[in-house]
Amino acid sequence: MSIFQSASSNASSDGTDGDHGVGLSNPSLSQTRRRMLDMVNRLHNTGVQIDIDLPQIAVIGNQSAGKSSLIESISGITLPRAAGTCTRCPTECRLSRSDAPWACTVELRFITDKNGQPLGHARNEAFGDEISDKSQVEDRIRRAQRAILNPSKPARTFLDDTEDDTTELSFSTNYISLQISGPELADLSFVDLPGLIASVSRGGNERDIKMVENLVSSYISKPSCVILLTVACETDFENQGAHHLTKKHDPEGKRTIGVLTKPDRIPRGDEESWLPLIRNEQEALENNWYCVKQPSSQDIKQGITWEEARARENDFFALTPPWSELDPLYQKYLRTINLVDRLSSILSDLISKRLPEIQLELENTVQNTREALAQLPKPPSSDPVSEVAGLLHTFVDELGQILEGIPVAGALLQTIRPAQEQFRRAIRNTAPAFRPFEEPDEYIDIDLQFFEPEFLANEDGGSDEDDDGEDFNAPIFIDQVLARAHAARTRELPGHVPFVVQKSYISEFTNKWESPARVLCRLVHTTLALHIKALIAPHFSSFGQGGLEQRVTILIQDYMRSRANAAEALITKLIALEKNGPLTLNDHYLSDYREKFLSHYKKAREETQNPTLVEAINAYKSRAIPVPATPGISQVMTGLAAIGLHGVDVDDLVTLLPPDRMEPALNIMADVRAYFQVAYKRIVDNVALSVDYELVRGLGRELLPTLYSGLGINGPEALRICSELAQESPSVAGKREELLKRLERLETASRELVTVGM
User: Fold this and answer.
1) Cβ-count burial of 638 within 10 angstroms (0-12 exposed, 13-18 middle, 19+ buried)?
2) What are the pLDDT digits (tens) for 696-753?
3) Start and end of every Dynamin-type G domain (predicted)?
4) What is the pLDDT of residues 386-421, one digit of tens each?
5) How many Cβ atoms sit within 10 Å of the Cβ of residue 58?
6) Residue by residue, what is the 3-state secondary structure of 541-563?
7) Using alpha carbons only, how large is the chain's radius of gyration in Å?
8) Among candidates 55, 90, 46, 54, which has minimal Cα distance to 71?
9) Using CA atoms, how far apart are residues 259 and 644, in angstroms rounded to an integer?
10) Is the dihedral of CA 351, 357, 361, 362 positive or negative?
11) Which residues, 6 or more positions from 564, have their beta carbon under 8 angstroms from its beta carbon?
12) Distance from CA of residue 433 to its chain's centroid?
């Protein structure tokens, strides 16, 4: 006899007599609560829980944590308890109130095939006839679980076969669905999940641990899932993995109800360690912790009734310290009936909160599903050649606009620009780092005092301290330049140096240009490929079975590779021209730069060679110091005027200094640095233009004829080829069927909400 074959109880929350039904079948539930539970049950009947997060209860815990006993107290049925029959697949209980006699139907719900691969749609299979005797439920569930765990065998064979514990699977995500109706039941859905495994026994499968954890997580991770966390008091709290998994998905404890089971098995003297949970002082939950005591296996074998079980539970908490000594404030967290009442209240509150959200989610999902249906491709065309040609023309036209440039952030040209700027800086950073003073033993302080000339600030893009090109190269001191000049002299007259010295310095920086240029070409190629890939999908992915998209992608990749090769070939030529030797027809720019750099180098050198004179000249020019304070400069300027040398500028006084023996080196430095400015701007523009002409714009040239020829749609086999390409993909047909079924579920659920007058 099942312990739950009775429909009433004599034990209330404080041990007094009361009128309660079995578990959540309490007939005193308000009509409003019953109406809300009925509504959610109706929504579950539509199958819309696949698409919408519906409120439900999930019971979790470690193996042997007392979950089954807790489920029995809620549902009023008896679950399998024999050795080897622990929960190995989810068991869904769908309770519904009915005026008809008590009845239970068992279904198997398959969401994966026998190989564990997901099915396109869940498959429901009735398992046996309707049950009208509660005592038959336990055996039917046991057989149903064996059918789930042996997916390669017909399920019906397990209805009448002899008991055999051999199974193909140790656990399964497919589940048993119990639909129980009767006059004493509430409308409710909850699921009993397999117990979490701490370790596997000898010969067991380690994968079962992770499989069960993932299965449990798939339920309790949903925001509308009320988690019933069962914790056995006979095991150390911190060693129970279900608690840690619950905290992962409900870290604030807002939708978890903790349930302590087996309090009678707590080692003597350890009872006090569990009381902080009941007082919510430890591992606090918004809905608190409860403690229940269910019948032992021996009690069940002796046929204990539900009334007797509740009475014994009441006696245990009323007479057993420290439970009996708890403050009355915490007594409401003891006993199954108190748990069930609180559980029902929490679930109904959640349903009340979620129903308006569910209605909105249904409306949005219906709209999204209809839009998804509208986005599906049309059935195969009767004129596939014209359709393919139209797709190609539309694609090439849009690509042409992208290659030409569209004023949108993140478009192709906007995305390429950082690579171009990176290339410009890389070439700029090859500038020779000339220093107009001799190399000292420790030149760090002097080197820091030499800065880029101000006239380069604007034309080089406002170079700053972090982007000073010459800082990327080792300093070249003036005595090193002079030494190279002397070493290169052959038949030159004194004071003259061969031009090969300038050429050697020019070759040093032009030899560094090929690598940054090729990097630019590769970056543009990669960026272009990404944009093309993003453009191909919306144009061709929905056509046929994807063959057209695949072939167009391959053809464009090959063509783009050929254009990249052409760009690199042109870059190679340009670099070779620069390496061939210095040449420019821009004499004016070269001369202007030469004079500016020579003046810049001389000024810096004078500041280090004759600091007193330079300081006096600067003071005289700025007049920051009164004239009497610089009598020397004033007297010199007055004396020059007295002998008839009018119009002499104070800066000209430095020409009176003895000739600088480094003058030839200063000229070499000015020549090379001036030529760099001319050549660097030229190569930056020419390489960028080459990549743009050959690769970016080049991709658009002759692309349409290339696609026509590569696809073969301009030849005699065009009709056959296009017909094959236009064949509808089975995945598209399956997607359409899936969307139609989803739309049917959603619309049915929407009608249910209207019917019950939400």
Assistant:
1) exposed
2) 999 999 999 999 999 998 888 988 888 888 887 777 777 877 888 888 888 888 888 7
3) 51-356
4) 989 999 999 999 999 999 999 999 999 999 999 999
5) 20
6) CCCCCCHHHHHHHHHHHHHHHHH
7) 43
8) 90
9) 112
10) positive
11) 521, 522, 525, 694, 695
12) 46
Helical axes 336-375 vs 306-319, angle rounded to 10°? 120
32: Cα within 13 Å, side-chain hemisphere: 5
Q: How many CB atoms lie within 10 A of CB 691?
A: 30
Residue 654: which of 703, 621, 626 has the closest Cα?
621
In angstroms, the CA 189 to CA 311 distance is 27
Distance CA 17, CA 534 (A): 71
Judged against a pLDDT cut of 80, whether residue 33 lies above it is answered with: no
- Side by side, the strands of the sheet bearing 175-182 are 118-126, 103-112, 175-182, 91-97, 188-192, 56-61, 225-232, 256-261, 289-291
What pLDDT does 630 receive?
55
The whole-angstrom separation of Cα 619 and Cα 626 is: 9
> Cα separation of 71 and 74, whole Å?
5
Q: Could you tell me the two tokens for 379? A: 């059935």
Residue 332 CA: distances (Å) to CA of 262, 292, 673: 18, 11, 90
User: Quick one: CA dihedral 177, 183, 186, 187, positive or negative?
Assistant: positive
Residue 62: partners with Cβ closer than 8 Å, 6 or more residues away: 195, 196, 197, 198, 232, 235, 240, 241, 242
Higher pLDDT, 46 or 703: 703
Between CA 741 and CA 516 the distance in angstroms is 57
**Partners of residue 61 on adjacent β-strands:** 230
What are the backbone dihedrals phi and psi of residue 710, each rounded to the nearest 5 degrees, phi first? -65, -35
Task: Report the first-to-last Cα separation within the chain, whole angstroms.
Answer: 42
Of 124 and 594, the one with more pLDDT: 594
